[in-house]
Amino acid sequence: MSKKVMQKIVSIEKQELSAEKVELALVDDAKRVISDYASIEEDNAFGFVVKAEMEYKDVLSKYERLLKDIESITPKLEKAIQDIGINRSNFGVLEDLDDRKADVKERISVVKRNINDLKSINPN
Known about the structure:
Oligomer: single chain
Distance between the termini: 71 Å
């Protein structure tokens, strides 16, 4: 074979090897991308959402118990001050209870809204 033919064969083989290297590099890149996808731990992020939702539910439960206590004690206290002849408007504790009741109702509304927002984030 002539030297020119040999150079042409070597050139073709180099091109083929180069193309195979490119293909192998692309396969390696593809495997890395697949591995990167598998390593993303989205569940950990959702774990924070679930934990926050559970903590809000605990807070909601506390607020609801507090509201129930306020609603339970208020009429008893009103009757007691009426029985001893004290004017409701002169008895500041009832006004304080009314204020706390309004505050607690507002907090319950906010907490419920936050729970619903967290539920909309959580895919489960």
